[in-house]
Design goal:
The chain is an all-alpha fold and about 40 residues long. The chain has one helix and no strands.
């Protein structure tokens, strides 16, 4: 059970990172399409 607990955290972190990167890339594409800056 401890092994499962230890191995689940990198998976959760990877999912959260994927969500953040996907949202960021979506914002970059939208900004480029609108001709605005990200910051």
């Amino acid at each position: 059970m401890l092994t499962l607990y230890i191995l689940i955290w990198p998976l959760i972190s990877a999912v959260v990172l994927a969500v953040i990167v996907t949202a960021f890339l979506r914002e970059v594409r939208q900004a480029k399409k609108d001709g605005t800056k990200i910051v």
